[in-house]
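Request: Not sure, any thoughts?
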Amino acid sequence: MGCVQRFDRVRGDRPVKAGRVAPRGALAALLLLATTTAQQPPAADAQAERGAQLFARQCAACHGDTGRGDGPVAYLLDPKPRNFTSGTFRVVSTDNAVPSEDDLLTTLRRGMPGSAMPPWGQLPDADLRALVATVRRLVVEGRADAAMA
């Protein structure tokens, strides 16, 4: 079985292939990606923990512990609280219907007029960003659960 090699550049005195990654190189890149993404920096862990604490204290009564919109007071609310695991949001400025971090921050700061969601603008910016990260995590977990079902 013949192999045609194509060289697009020359580095020093040896040719360099373009547009292809050697299988060993691809495996090494995947292993590097897996090890670096598996280890979160302590700041990210602290933010995730803070977001989970805030969500449990401020949001879970309406949105539920897992963000499905099924909290203990949800049955009293009209409109019903957002089910984050569905991945659909009302306030979205992007073309792909996925809210940006700014979209979520704006919703947290201003609340949702016409609903029971109050504004949380009194919270520090770091806490609001921690809540945004928690909501994004709930969306991802919801999609993963749906794919497994």
Remarks:
- The beta strands are 7-11, 14-17.
- The chain has four helices and two strands.
- Residues 1-11, 16-33 have pLDDT under 50 and may be disordered.
- The CA atoms of residues 26 and 135 lie 33 Å apart.
